[in-house]
Amino acid sequence: MLAMFFWAFVIGGVICVIGQLMFDVFKLTPAHTLSTMVVAGAILAGFGLYEPLIDFAGAGATIPITSFGNSLVDGAMREAEKHGLIGVITGMFEVTSSGISAAIVFGFLGALLFKPKG
């Protein structure tokens, strides 16, 4: 079990280091970095490489933003098998809607409980 925590920490840390290098070395904006990380996760999922990473690293691979790209591709591919081309579009929204909805609800609750700036 200790090895599982170790590898989750290492893999999640490597993903974060890559993002930080994108900020510091390549001088990308947060929006560009976020988009690049999501696309990288989607590409890895498209080639079937992200699921083995999740199996190996657990939360180290599911918590970073790259996992969102994986979820988009996974949902799109699953629904495309059932419904064809229209499933590609509906599958992305079906799989990710609960996470996006939770972010909206918890963001709203946080704004009610704390004094938001700006």
TrEMBL record:
Pfam families: SpoVAC_SpoVAEB
Transmembrane helix as UniProt keyword: yes
Chain ranges passing through the membrane: 6-26, 33-50, 85-114
UniProtKB keywords: Membrane, Transmembrane, Transmembrane helix
Entry-linked PANTHER family: STAGE V SPORULATION PROTEIN AC-RELATED, STAGE V SPORULATION PROTEIN AEB
The protein, known as: Stage V sporulation protein AE
